[in-house]
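User: Round two. Same drill as before: sequence, then structure, for each protein.

Assistant: Same drill it is. First protein:
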Amino acid sequence: MKLPRELRELGQTARAALRSIAELIGDSLAREPAGAPSAEVSDVRKTVEVRDFGSNPGNLRMLVQPPSRASRRGAPLVVVLHGCAQEAVGFATDAGWTTFADQHGFPLLMPEQLRENNHAHCFNWFQPEHGRRGHGEALSIRQMVAASVERFGVDSRRVFIVGLSAGAAMTAAMMAAYPDVFAAGAVVAGLPVGCARGMAQAFVRMAHAGPNLSAEEWAAKVRASAPSDYRGRFPRISIWHGAEDNVVDPANARLLVEQWTAVHGFGGTEGSQTSPAPGVSRRIWGTAAQPAVELWRMDHLRHAYPINGIGHPSEWVARAPVSATHAIARFWDLR
């Protein structure tokens, strides 16, 4: 049977994407895990594994860095989601979040994937049974958040989440599924909510952003992820992408902007743009003091989390003109 041309082209795209991305991930898996912290980094010794945090239907590890001092009233909780071929503490350390949390006295939650769940150590954001409220990995992360809020006495209204790549896609999914839990999030080299169902589609959308939907159709995918009776605000979002990303198509950042500006009532507007550093642009939607959506674009950044002045460069973490960790913390108003 001869398949229609569109299906043949989609199959060719999927196979090409699978080959190129598998090569990139395979190379890093063959080496020491990209996110593994170096011997001189002491943050690993501060990490505690918590096993009794809930039913854990997604079979994830819960790793936390307790605050360096007793949590002050109103202290936040930050959740950090690693990318493929990374380890939770290694990525959080390299990205500078362990240092930043230590300096500012708040706990850090670092969920970690197990290779038995995903051989490339990726969160399964593309599987409906794991990216949906009340199910799989999404529920495991939610249970970790609840356990951390109780354990450390942080402000449940100040829970934030950030991720890179697969962790970024999972971050977006968590923000959509649990808008009543997260105040804001940050998606670094990620993809929009609902862009893929299954691994093959995920690889296609990593290579070629899509599908071709209107902003309102994208926004509907976010709203459909939340409880049907939810009438509250959705989390604010900081979106980051490098123009030289050869793993996740940078056009996914545009789709994320379309999706979340529509969610926040700014669909179809241009926002306002500044250039904080050479080759770096920042565009915001909403008030200057507290934007609902922001987009950071870096001309010379590959598929990596950008650091500057904090953190350690590694396979998927790169020096850049702007520190994502510091900028995201300002966006979240972490003090």
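Second protein:
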Amino acid sequence: MKQRTIREAFSIKGKGLHTGVKTTITFRPAPVDFGYKIKRTDLQGSPVITASAENVMNTQRCTVLLVDGVQVATIEHALAALYGCEIDNCLIEIDSPEFPILDGSAVEYVNNIHRVGFEEQSEERIYYEVDQNIEYFDAETGSCLMLMPSDRFSVHVQIAFDSEVLPVQKAFLENLSDFKDEVSMCRTFVFIREIESLLKTGLIKGGDLDNAIVIYDQLIQQKELDRLADVMGIERRKIDKTGYIVNKPLLFPNEPARHKLLDVIGDIALVGRFIKGRIIANRPGHRINNLFARNIVEQIETRPVFEMHTNFS
């Protein structure tokens, strides 16, 4: 298969999840072997950062790149969209330090990519063909990610929380061609018990019910709910039972697990190669996703890569 870029540029406006800063992000076609690069147009000289696993410096509630003092945050949904649409090369321009959260998913990115279309390029895509298992285990959290040999790219995810509302969930993506319809629209989520501490640490300043699912798995007093709503700048609601607090109903019963799968793809996109292999992710998160991606990069650098002339599907 040939490498691909987008046919023409497109821009999206939104606000950052953690900074709350309004931003414009523009995706532009890029030449062969360019990969994914991000240009901070708001900074002097418009510095460019390569979107790579080794450039990740923070994984607290999002994936953050830092190169020579230049930072860009919450990149994972946009990169999942590019990877899920099988775009090899793209320049992303942004005028703030954080990508927009939009509705908490990757669907707006994906819809725009499909709207402008794809441009087949002159060079063949280079895949990393997995020839033995690659595993990363975190003894502290019990999280484990494994990459296994396979004849195509696929991802299996299982999440497990100490929550009656969100217990064990599984999600599967058997082909990248299914990403648009099965994963791209699945939104990020947060537990009600996490909101206070996240706000105190300066995060989720742009969070609201238009861009996140709130897991309400423990009853709290109405006055405390009202206070949190006021702090977040959202409408007060009377809630007398546990469940999901949403503006729009869940798209799938396992939407949270599907979103975690989306995040895995966005973080694995930082490997810099399309992969022929099966990812099994148990309790994934941005930190272990990045450590796993770095491990894959090490294997790529020490093992041969193969030019494949067929698609994943």
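Confidence is low (pLDDT under 50) at residues 305-313.

User: Perfect.
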